[in-house]
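thought: fold this chain, then report.
action: predict
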Amino acid sequence: MERGIRYCRVNAFCTLLLVLFAWVPVTKTVITCRSCHLLDKWSGREILVRMDSGVDFGKVGDKNGDGSTALFNSAGAETGQPDCGATDNCEHAHSVRKRNTDRLRSEKMPLDDKRKSMRSYGKVYILKRPGSQGSAPGEPHHRVRRSTQGPGSPPSARSLPAFGNSTAQSARRVPRSDLRWNREERRTATSRQEELKLTSSTFALTGDSAHNQAMVHWSGQNSSVILMLTKLYDFNLGSVTESSLWRSTDYGTTYEKLNEKVGVKTILSYLYVSPNNKRKIMLLTDPEVESSLLISSDEGATYQKYRLNFYILSLLFHPEQEDWILAYGHDQKLYSSVEFGRRWQLVHERVAPNRFYWSKLGLDKEPGLIHLETKALYVTCKLQNCTDANKGKPFPGYIDPNSLVVQDEYVFVQVSTGGRPIYYVSSRRDVFTPMKLPKYTLPKDLHVISTDENRVVAAVQEWNQNDTYNLYVSEAGGIYYTLALENVMSSMGPEGNVMIDLYEVAGIKGMFLANKKQNNEVKTYITYNKGRDWRLLQAPSGDLRGNRIHCMLPYCSLHLHLQVSANPYTSGNIASRESAPGIIVASGSIGAELTSSNVSMFITSDAGNTWRQIFDEEYSVLYLDQGGALVAIRHTPLPIRHLWLSFDEGRLWNKYSFTSSPLFVDGVLGEPGEETLIMTIFGHVSHRSEWQLVKIDFRSIFNRRCIESDYVPWDLHDQGERCLMGVKRVYRKLKPIARCVMGKTYSVTMISEPCDCTESDFECDYGFERRADGKCTPAFWFLPSSMSRTCTTEHTFLNSTGYRKVVSNNCTGGVMEQFTARRQPCPSQAPRGLHLVTSEGKLTATTASNVTFLVFLEEGDGSKTSITVDFGDGNAFTYSNVSSIEDGIKHIYKNVGIYRVSATAENTLGSETVLLFLHITCQLESIHLSAPFVAVKNKEVNLTAVLSPSQVGTVTYIWWFGNNSEPVITLEGSVAFTFSREGISVVTVQVSGGNTILQDRKTVAVHEYFRSHLLAFSSNLDDHNPDVAEWRLDVSRVIKTSMVQVMNPEQLLVTVLPGLPTAAEFFLLPDKQLTEGKPDKTGNSELVLSALNQNLVQFTLRPGVQITVYAAHLSAAPLVDTSENHSGSAMLMLLSVVVVGLAVFLIYKFKRYCHPFLKIQRGS
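observation:
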């Protein structure tokens, strides 16, 4: 949902935070200080710090190349969107967090966002100061599903960006104890007089005190270069008005201002880095001023400017090719560059936002292939040659808008049929198959959480859930799903995406933490075997004071907040590292359930078996030296000058000063790479001061390099059980007493020994459920014999035992043979479970279009079962086996109608037939409502809707009469209606056919008495008759004007009839003042007819075109009296004779006494 930007009140002491966003400027995220108010007269301060590691934190498909140059979304920066590219709505947090829970369905993001998800590999950190225009409401509630990874680690499917160094906690009232040293400070090993100091240097960004945003790029990996882009974002104008570019070549000790190199008047808005070559930098100018790119190939030392002819909303870098980039424009056009942005080429138009993906090596046929969604179709396209001839269509038919997800070896789409979504998956680019969830799951919502290690983890909100989701896991094909954990907590991110409380621990394969709702209480559970078994966390045995904690399972346990920073160089509410297996630091509480009050910091060094309390309030904890040391910075709105260090896995903490004067800390950025011995703290000494960049070098506190004797072996176990995921694992860890630098050459060493398989290595197979005794039995809805469905295309099938081995479990022997499915020959059986559908899931199609029918057979020997399809139009085809029609059966219908389509499967043991009724229509082009111009009161009239073309298939007619609010709905194009009141009535008809609705409207004059006569015209009028309604109305008005000279205009109505030759009808109404509403017995009608019969009435259609109007004597009803005193053909005949005689008399009289108002044309 949209949120407004708020100014932070300076004295509110809002803690600003550093947030990493994958390079996806986001649509709906607005980061705001939760305790800020709109009273601050100063503009906010924010730093968008940018970092580059090899980690990919993008959306769900990022693992195939969606890098993230994390864009900064400062609280207000994102509705105003300096970070999102001067947008009104941003999408950083949305796209990045969504990586964890990427919906197959559209997120319904508005397209008017000026800058939507910026996707690239560079990491961007968002830093904010008190007084910032806002921060994301409810920040502590952001859920990130995966621990941060170090450089080079594979991108995580759940790496959702969280808020920077965990300083994202909202400002709060400071207790008196906070004004003194806290308990941890009193525990320090030194006194204040003997204060330990860190080697540090401070640099102020002079002249940028007004700038309220910054983006930082630190290449790391043996590079000393740091780039910082600071900006002044005007929240009133909604654009960047100033910018400065700074560069350091000495790890941040000093910085040089580069404004003259990029152009003094140039205003920069974004900073990008190639994920494959950190020396290549891209700067994007503010499009409100100019649309250009500045490109550097020497780590930002020099730049070249290139003009753009489109407005970039998002970028996607190729995962291997450093110069290949996809750019999404504001007009839904996708562009590509193979020269790192120097030249661009249009790839495709009308592409769905954020639904485009690079190909994956080893899965796609070529590296330059692009997967994209356009006009509700999934297509593949060649990078430099995206023509219709070269497009692929992997999914046969339309998909739901914004539902394409390409992640690792899987592709997901969604198709809604009958109001219920059907989710399809393709594994290794094979054919699409419906995802098989337990039969009565009936999902309201589904998100792909992970596709790691050849299996899919999906979060499904079922029909009876509101704020929780169930976790389901698949087999390697991603088709069959079983339940892993019920009622996992969820929350809504600030940009509207769903956040699932699931955390994957780094460094320990198969280990997860999750917050589950049970009896209205939220509890934290842990698993060591990918969700096969879960248990509560054992609380610490004692607190910081040494007092014993009485907490007995299952009534009392430890519960953790699982908000994570996707920034690998700062800490969230929970953190772990690949290089430090078994060490987890998190904030949480002890008791019956998870609470937000009395939050403390806890640590485990044995992978969750035992926990220790390390602080009794919230701290940001970061890993130094690949986890060999820990750094803690306190969450406080007050200025600080100290941080805490531990060299023994959090058992003892020492206090160090990092600056001589207290600093309001806005965020912390560590050197890229796991080593992280250099750190920069961003802050300010006052609310109006320049940015203060404090560089801290921790190398001086280590006295030597680690040697082999500094390490000890550590056995991974779960409460004593060493066989986890089928192996015994022994890690090498640093001794708690060792105070040495492990360095960049350190690598995690693990010795693994396979275990014999036991029942705990197997989970329940699809269709089976675990009982209380741990056994897997068939669900009530499941028929085990149905698993032989592969027999429809193969000769053998896997006969399930009710169990399947947990994915990535490496056990051997033991009960393996007993629990593993056995391949058996397909049994001979009659066909059963035949399905016939169209590829688009619809029951309608248009003439002359290809209709693709799909035929599925659940049971039966497909190789020996023939399929006969009768299309219902006299054509039928027989296929020898099921495998021959896997790609569908195409057919073209030439005529409109409803066709009975049947499919029959038959073998020697029996047959089965299924029917489908298909509506074939053609496009409805126009509609004409045929209705009388004048109707008699209380007499039924016929109204007809005339369609073009006349045969369009099944249509529905909706009629409105007069002021009636309720319509009349018919399947016929004609209705009879009686008007009960005199006056003008409007008749409206709508025709609905297929996806088309057309309408026509007519006005009917209703009178109790009137007389009518047909009119004819000189033939030259036909040459100027376009036969359109507007022309007929205009000519009717002209004819009436030429005739009203003989009578009261209120008594005369004229209408020109459709078609050729041109004809019209005039109606004479009684003068109610003279006749009291009765039929006119005066000679008005006779006078008019006499003039018409003498061809005396004319009008000018255009200069030189004179039209003569005369009475049509051959009319079927030349003159009609609607009074009830006369009726029948005899009366009409008599009336005709009288009229003729009267006309002769009138002509004679008119020759003698001309009517003063009638223009008479005398013959020659």
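thought: worth noting. The radius of gyration is 40 Å.
final: tokens above.
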